[in-house]
Amino acid sequence: FDDTKKGVVEFRNVSFKYPDADEEILKNISFTAKPGETTAFIGSTGSGKSTLINLIPRFFDATEGEIIVDGVNIKNVEQHELRKRIGYVPQKGILFTGTIASNLRYGNPDATDDEIRDAAEIAQAMEFISTKPDGFATEISQGGTNVSGGQKQRLSIARAIAKNPEIYIFDDSFSALDLKTDAALRKALKPKTKDATVLIVAQRISTILHAEQIIVLNEGEIVGKGTHKEL
Ligand code: ATP
Protein backbone atom coordinates (compact mmCIF):
# COMPACT_ATOMS: atom_id res chain seq x y z
CA PHE A 1 0.00 0.00 0.00
CA ASP A 2 1.14 3.50 -0.85
CA ASP A 3 0.81 5.67 2.27
CA THR A 4 0.69 8.88 0.25
CA LYS A 5 -2.56 7.58 -1.28
CA LYS A 6 -4.09 6.54 2.04
CA GLY A 7 -7.84 6.14 1.71
CA VAL A 8 -8.04 6.86 -2.02
CA VAL A 9 -10.46 4.50 -3.79
CA GLU A 10 -10.32 4.54 -7.55
CA PHE A 11 -12.43 2.62 -10.07
CA ARG A 12 -10.92 2.44 -13.56
CA ASN A 13 -13.35 1.23 -16.23
CA VAL A 14 -14.83 -1.41 -13.98
CA SER A 15 -17.42 -3.81 -15.35
CA PHE A 16 -19.02 -6.63 -13.44
CA LYS A 17 -21.14 -9.72 -14.04
CA TYR A 18 -22.23 -12.03 -11.22
CA PRO A 19 -20.77 -15.50 -11.65
CA ASP A 20 -23.06 -17.57 -13.90
CA ALA A 21 -25.08 -14.52 -14.97
CA ASP A 22 -25.14 -13.24 -18.55
CA GLU A 23 -26.05 -9.67 -17.86
CA GLU A 24 -23.50 -7.04 -16.95
CA ILE A 25 -24.61 -5.38 -13.71
CA LEU A 26 -21.92 -2.67 -13.79
CA LYS A 27 -20.66 -1.12 -17.01
CA ASN A 28 -17.47 0.84 -17.38
CA ILE A 29 -17.53 2.51 -13.96
CA SER A 30 -14.81 5.11 -13.29
CA PHE A 31 -14.55 7.49 -10.35
CA THR A 32 -12.21 8.47 -7.53
CA ALA A 33 -13.26 8.74 -3.88
CA LYS A 34 -10.92 10.80 -1.75
CA PRO A 35 -10.11 10.98 1.95
CA GLY A 36 -11.88 13.78 3.79
CA GLU A 37 -14.78 13.50 1.37
CA THR A 38 -18.09 11.71 1.19
CA THR A 39 -18.97 10.01 -2.07
CA ALA A 40 -22.65 9.09 -2.26
CA PHE A 41 -24.33 6.65 -4.64
CA ILE A 42 -27.92 7.11 -5.64
CA GLY A 43 -30.10 5.49 -8.28
CA SER A 44 -33.21 3.39 -8.56
CA THR A 45 -33.63 -0.08 -7.14
CA GLY A 46 -31.48 -2.57 -8.98
CA SER A 47 -29.24 0.08 -10.54
CA GLY A 48 -26.18 -1.62 -9.04
CA LYS A 49 -25.30 0.54 -6.02
CA SER A 50 -24.78 -2.32 -3.57
CA THR A 51 -22.98 -4.39 -6.16
CA LEU A 52 -20.57 -1.52 -6.81
CA ILE A 53 -19.56 -0.95 -3.20
CA ASN A 54 -19.37 -4.69 -2.53
CA LEU A 55 -16.47 -4.87 -4.97
CA ILE A 56 -14.31 -2.72 -2.68
CA PRO A 57 -13.91 -5.27 0.16
CA ARG A 58 -13.76 -7.94 -2.56
CA PHE A 59 -17.00 -9.75 -1.81
CA PHE A 60 -16.76 -10.23 -5.58
CA ASP A 61 -14.02 -9.33 -8.02
CA ALA A 62 -14.50 -6.99 -10.96
CA THR A 63 -14.89 -8.78 -14.30
CA GLU A 64 -13.04 -6.02 -16.15
CA GLY A 65 -11.11 -2.94 -15.15
CA GLU A 66 -9.22 -2.13 -11.98
CA ILE A 67 -10.06 -1.08 -8.46
CA ILE A 68 -7.24 0.74 -6.76
CA VAL A 69 -7.14 1.26 -2.99
CA ASP A 70 -4.27 3.18 -1.41
CA GLY A 71 -2.50 3.09 -4.76
CA VAL A 72 -2.61 -0.66 -5.30
CA ASN A 73 -4.82 -2.94 -7.37
CA ILE A 74 -6.92 -4.80 -4.80
CA LYS A 75 -6.61 -7.99 -6.84
CA ASN A 76 -2.99 -8.11 -5.73
CA VAL A 77 -3.67 -7.61 -2.04
CA GLU A 78 -4.55 -10.14 0.62
CA GLN A 79 -8.22 -9.89 1.50
CA HIS A 80 -7.48 -9.52 5.16
CA GLU A 81 -4.99 -6.68 4.57
CA LEU A 82 -7.58 -4.92 2.43
CA ARG A 83 -10.50 -5.42 4.82
CA LYS A 84 -8.49 -4.14 7.77
CA ARG A 85 -8.69 -0.71 6.16
CA ILE A 86 -12.43 -0.78 5.60
CA GLY A 87 -15.38 -0.28 7.94
CA TYR A 88 -18.28 -1.84 6.07
CA VAL A 89 -21.87 -1.54 7.24
CA PRO A 90 -24.37 -3.67 5.29
CA GLN A 91 -28.00 -2.77 4.60
CA LYS A 92 -29.18 -4.87 7.50
CA GLY A 93 -27.18 -4.82 10.72
CA ILE A 94 -25.60 -8.13 11.63
CA LEU A 95 -24.95 -9.20 15.22
CA PHE A 96 -23.06 -12.19 16.55
CA THR A 97 -23.70 -14.25 19.66
CA GLY A 98 -21.91 -12.58 22.55
CA THR A 99 -22.12 -9.34 24.46
CA ILE A 100 -22.74 -5.91 23.00
CA ALA A 101 -19.11 -5.05 23.78
CA SER A 102 -17.76 -8.08 21.94
CA ASN A 103 -20.00 -7.25 19.00
CA LEU A 104 -18.56 -3.75 18.87
CA ARG A 105 -15.00 -5.09 19.11
CA TYR A 106 -15.50 -7.53 16.26
CA GLY A 107 -13.42 -5.58 13.73
CA ASN A 108 -10.93 -4.26 16.27
CA PRO A 109 -10.31 -6.59 19.21
CA ASP A 110 -7.92 -4.07 20.75
CA ALA A 111 -10.48 -1.26 21.02
CA THR A 112 -10.47 0.20 24.55
CA ASP A 113 -13.60 0.63 26.65
CA ASP A 114 -13.46 4.36 25.91
CA GLU A 115 -13.25 3.74 22.16
CA ILE A 116 -16.21 1.36 22.34
CA ARG A 117 -18.26 3.87 24.31
CA ASP A 118 -17.30 6.68 21.96
CA ALA A 119 -18.33 4.59 18.93
CA ALA A 120 -21.65 3.69 20.59
CA GLU A 121 -22.26 7.34 21.37
CA ILE A 122 -21.60 8.46 17.79
CA ALA A 123 -23.85 5.69 16.47
CA GLN A 124 -26.64 6.88 18.82
CA ALA A 125 -26.61 3.47 20.50
CA MET A 126 -25.85 4.64 24.07
CA GLU A 127 -29.45 5.67 24.41
CA PHE A 128 -30.62 2.05 24.50
CA ILE A 129 -27.42 0.40 25.80
CA SER A 130 -27.66 2.53 28.94
CA THR A 131 -31.22 1.33 29.60
CA LYS A 132 -30.05 -2.30 29.75
CA PRO A 133 -29.22 -3.47 33.29
CA ASP A 134 -25.99 -5.05 32.03
CA GLY A 135 -25.06 -2.21 29.65
CA PHE A 136 -22.20 -3.24 27.35
CA ALA A 137 -22.16 -6.68 29.00
CA THR A 138 -25.67 -7.41 27.73
CA GLU A 139 -25.75 -10.71 25.88
CA ILE A 140 -27.16 -10.60 22.37
CA SER A 141 -29.53 -13.54 21.98
CA GLN A 142 -29.13 -15.87 19.04
CA GLY A 143 -30.11 -14.00 15.90
CA GLY A 144 -30.22 -10.77 17.88
CA THR A 145 -33.90 -11.06 18.74
CA ASN A 146 -33.54 -8.95 21.89
CA VAL A 147 -32.64 -5.85 19.87
CA SER A 148 -34.78 -4.07 17.30
CA GLY A 149 -33.84 -3.61 13.64
CA GLY A 150 -32.86 0.01 14.22
CA GLN A 151 -30.78 -0.92 17.29
CA LYS A 152 -29.03 -3.66 15.36
CA GLN A 153 -28.26 -1.14 12.68
CA ARG A 154 -26.79 1.30 15.19
CA LEU A 155 -24.61 -1.41 16.72
CA SER A 156 -23.40 -2.36 13.26
CA ILE A 157 -22.49 1.27 12.61
CA ALA A 158 -20.78 1.51 16.01
CA ARG A 159 -18.74 -1.58 15.15
CA ALA A 160 -17.42 0.09 12.00
CA ILE A 161 -16.58 3.26 13.94
CA ALA A 162 -14.75 1.31 16.66
CA LYS A 163 -12.51 -0.08 13.93
CA ASN A 164 -11.37 3.45 13.12
CA PRO A 165 -10.90 2.59 9.45
CA GLU A 166 -9.52 4.79 6.69
CA ILE A 167 -12.46 3.88 4.45
CA TYR A 168 -16.09 3.72 5.56
CA ILE A 169 -18.71 2.01 3.43
CA PHE A 170 -22.35 2.48 4.39
CA ASP A 171 -24.76 0.48 2.28
CA ASP A 172 -28.03 2.26 2.88
CA SER A 173 -27.19 1.82 6.54
CA PHE A 174 -29.27 4.69 7.83
CA SER A 175 -32.60 3.64 6.33
CA ALA A 176 -33.76 1.72 9.43
CA LEU A 177 -33.28 4.85 11.54
CA ASP A 178 -35.90 7.51 12.13
CA LEU A 179 -35.12 10.94 10.70
CA LYS A 180 -34.05 12.39 14.04
CA THR A 181 -31.61 9.59 14.83
CA ASP A 182 -30.32 9.65 11.26
CA ALA A 183 -29.58 13.38 11.54
CA ALA A 184 -27.96 13.08 15.00
CA LEU A 185 -25.82 10.19 13.85
CA ARG A 186 -24.58 11.97 10.75
CA LYS A 187 -23.73 15.06 12.78
CA ALA A 188 -21.75 13.02 15.33
CA LEU A 189 -20.04 11.02 12.61
CA LYS A 190 -18.73 14.04 10.76
CA PRO A 191 -15.78 14.96 13.03
CA LYS A 192 -14.93 11.27 13.47
CA THR A 193 -14.68 10.67 9.72
CA LYS A 194 -13.14 14.00 8.72
CA ASP A 195 -9.92 12.43 7.41
CA ALA A 196 -11.54 9.22 6.16
CA THR A 197 -13.00 8.27 2.80
CA VAL A 198 -16.73 7.81 3.19
CA LEU A 199 -18.75 5.90 0.60
CA ILE A 200 -22.45 5.84 1.15
CA VAL A 201 -25.43 4.36 -0.65
CA ALA A 202 -28.50 6.37 0.23
CA GLN A 203 -32.20 6.57 -0.44
CA ARG A 204 -32.90 9.71 1.55
CA ILE A 205 -31.77 12.87 -0.13
CA SER A 206 -31.03 14.44 3.28
CA THR A 207 -28.33 11.81 3.84
CA ILE A 208 -26.34 12.89 0.81
CA LEU A 209 -27.04 16.62 0.50
CA HIS A 210 -23.61 17.49 1.87
CA ALA A 211 -21.64 14.85 -0.01
CA GLU A 212 -18.64 16.22 -1.90
CA GLN A 213 -19.42 13.84 -4.75
CA ILE A 214 -22.72 12.28 -5.76
CA ILE A 215 -22.70 9.48 -8.29
CA VAL A 216 -25.97 8.65 -10.02
CA LEU A 217 -26.32 5.11 -11.31
CA ASN A 218 -28.82 3.84 -13.83
CA GLU A 219 -28.84 0.24 -15.02
CA GLY A 220 -25.23 -0.21 -14.00
CA GLU A 221 -23.92 2.94 -15.64
CA ILE A 222 -22.88 6.27 -14.21
CA VAL A 223 -25.31 8.83 -15.60
CA GLY A 224 -24.36 11.75 -13.38
CA LYS A 225 -21.50 12.86 -11.17
CA GLY A 226 -21.12 16.02 -9.11
CA THR A 227 -22.32 17.85 -6.03
CA HIS A 228 -25.99 18.25 -5.21
CA LYS A 229 -25.84 21.78 -6.61
CA GLU A 230 -24.25 20.68 -9.85
CA LEU A 231 -26.67 17.81 -10.47
P1 ATP B 1 -31.37 -1.47 -4.09
O1 ATP B 1 -31.49 0.00 -4.03
O2 ATP B 1 -32.70 -2.15 -4.31
O3 ATP B 1 -30.59 -2.07 -2.97
P2 ATP B 1 -29.08 -1.58 -5.87
O4 ATP B 1 -28.99 -0.37 -6.73
O5 ATP B 1 -28.23 -1.64 -4.66
O6 ATP B 1 -30.60 -1.81 -5.46
P3 ATP B 1 -28.00 -4.15 -6.52
O7 ATP B 1 -28.45 -4.75 -5.24
O8 ATP B 1 -26.57 -3.89 -6.70
O9 ATP B 1 -28.81 -2.80 -6.81
O10 ATP B 1 -28.51 -5.07 -7.69
C1 ATP B 1 -28.21 -4.83 -9.06
C2 ATP B 1 -28.63 -6.03 -9.89
O11 ATP B 1 -27.81 -7.14 -9.55
C3 ATP B 1 -30.07 -6.48 -9.68
O12 ATP B 1 -30.58 -6.80 -10.94
C4 ATP B 1 -29.95 -7.71 -8.82
O13 ATP B 1 -30.97 -8.59 -9.08
C5 ATP B 1 -28.61 -8.27 -9.25
N1 ATP B 1 -27.95 -9.01 -8.13
C6 ATP B 1 -27.69 -8.54 -6.89
N2 ATP B 1 -27.04 -9.46 -6.15
C7 ATP B 1 -26.90 -10.56 -6.93
C8 ATP B 1 -26.29 -11.85 -6.74
N3 ATP B 1 -25.71 -12.18 -5.59
N4 ATP B 1 -26.32 -12.71 -7.78
C9 ATP B 1 -26.90 -12.37 -8.96
N5 ATP B 1 -27.48 -11.18 -9.20
C10 ATP B 1 -27.49 -10.28 -8.20
TrEMBL record:
Domain (ABC transporter) ranges: 9-231
Signal peptide: none
Localization per Swiss-Prot or TrEMBL: Cell membrane
Descriptive protein name: ABC transporter ATP-binding protein
UniProt organism field: Peptacetobacter hominis
Included stretch of the parent chain: 502 to 732 of 755
